[in-house]
Amino acid sequence: MLKSLFRLQSHCLSRINPTAQKSWFHLKYSTAAAAERKRFYQDVSITQGEGGLYEINLDRRKLKTPGGKLFTVPNEALAIAVATEWGAQRETLKFYTMHLTTLCNTVLDNPTQRNEEQMINAALKFLETDTVCYRVDEPQALVELQMNEWDPVLSWIENRYNVVIGSSSSILGPEIPQATKDTFRQHLKSYNFWSLTGLEYVITQLKSVVLSMAMIDRHLSVEQAVFLSRLEEEYQIQSWGNVEWAHDYDMYELRARTAAGALFVQLSSEISTVKKKLLQD
Q1: Its membrane topology, per UniProt (predicted)?
Q2: In which element (H, E) is residue 57 found?
Q3: Backbone angle region of 280, left / alpha / beta, with phi > 0 → left and psi within -120 to 50 → alpha
Q4: Distance (Å, whole) CA 144 – CA 30
Q5: With the C-alpha atoms ordered 24, 25, 26, 31, is the resulting torsion angle positive or negative?
Q6: CA distance to 102, 106, 139, 150, 247, per residue, from 238 (Å)
Q7: Residue 36 has what pLDDT?
Q8: Whole-structure pTM value
Q9: Which residues pair with 93 in a beta bridge?
Q10: What is the pLDDT of residue 244?
Q11: How many Cα neighbours within 13 Å face the side chain of 154?
């Protein structure tokens, strides 16, 4: 089964200034056009604004999205995580490493103007081409590797959601029953818009609904999910050798993006009023 998997650890800044004066600051950037920029601030803090939403402040100036909207998140946990990304930057801002910030910008600006139903449809599309559902006929070693590594996860999710997915070596892939799609659709409807954004991001990274949901449900770790999504590539590496730095870099980058997406799903599902409810009880 899975071997030599490393445990992903995250390091967060612990000092966040909770107070800041109100002022406007419009930070525009594109991860494609401006992947890096010289750091222009010293301190990062969070404040709670109107409607209980949390804001990010850079030297007491309010962060805005690339689309010009005030950057706000629904709870303190997510705000701290985003502030950590900004605080962890050094002399040069590497926007391509700020996955949580990017996901928040995607939610707030919604550049493709999609609603929750459209996002669910997009996620379910991946079920028809899921990584773990496509199997090879040869070589035999890879056939057995896919069976040994993917089948247990596939069986788990079928039992977990009481669905049938299956696998196929046909170029068309397995035929997913409508009942299975309906079950997953109903499940995804329990996610809010923020969580759906994170989940779709994870699915896109892993090219797999099965692996993504198994990871979100904490049946798989980030390392395991990434390993399973790269199974054929890992087999090729074992057979033909590793390209120095390249394969490892790709793997760690995929881990970082996948971990960020999973964390975003969890944090955007947090309820900001939990503390108040506990006090009331």
Answers
A1: Peripheral membrane protein
A2: strand 54-58
A3: alpha
A4: 44
A5: negative
A6: 35, 38, 13, 18, 12
A7: 80
A8: 0.81
A9: 37
A10: 61
A11: 22
Task: Please state, as a whole number, how many other Cβ atoms lie within 10 Å of the Cβ of residue 174.
Answer: 18
What distance in Å separates the CA atoms of residue 268 and residue 106, rounded to the nearest whole number? Answer: 13
Q: Where are the alpha helices (DSSP H) in the chain?
A: 76-88, 99-109, 116-125, 140-161, 178-188, 193-206, 209-216, 222-229, 231-240, 246-268, 274-280
Residue 213, pLDDT score: 97
Helix locations, 162-230, DSSP H: 178-188, 193-206, 209-216, 222-229
Contact (CB, 8 A) for 47 and 57: yes
Please state the domain extents for the chain: 36-111, 116-268
Class of CATH domain 116-268: mainly alpha
- Is 36-111 assigned to CATH 3.30.2180.10? yes
Identity (one letter) of the amino acid at 126? Answer: F
The three-class DSSP label of residue 7 is coil
Contact 229, 153 (CB under 8 A): no
Task: List, for the chain, all residue ranges whose pLDDT scores fall below the cut of 50.
Answer: 1-33, 272-281
**In whole angstroms, what is the distance from residue 73 CA to residue 100 CA?**
11
